[in-house]
Write the structure tokens for this entry.
Amino acid sequence: MDDAKTTMAPPVYVVDPPLPPEPFRDCDVCDALARQRTEATAIGDWSKVTDTNVEIGRHHNLSHHGRASRGTL
């Protein structure tokens, strides 16, 4: 008898990707990163889109905006 697998694999759960970080108003760095992300999206460079999302998130976390980094735009 062969050793063929006769049971199903466990289910795979797929979740929605996280929402991209939003740039803060009146922040030149956020504006520049948002522009780069828009340009990357337009040409389908999803790696660059991801990179700019990470950069925006890091920029927010470094508290360059003088206020809480989450939930204030």
Q: What stands out?
A: The CA atoms of residues 44 and 52 lie 13 Å apart. Confidence is low (pLDDT under 50) at residues 68-73. The first helix runs from residue 28 to 43. The radius of gyration is 20 Å.
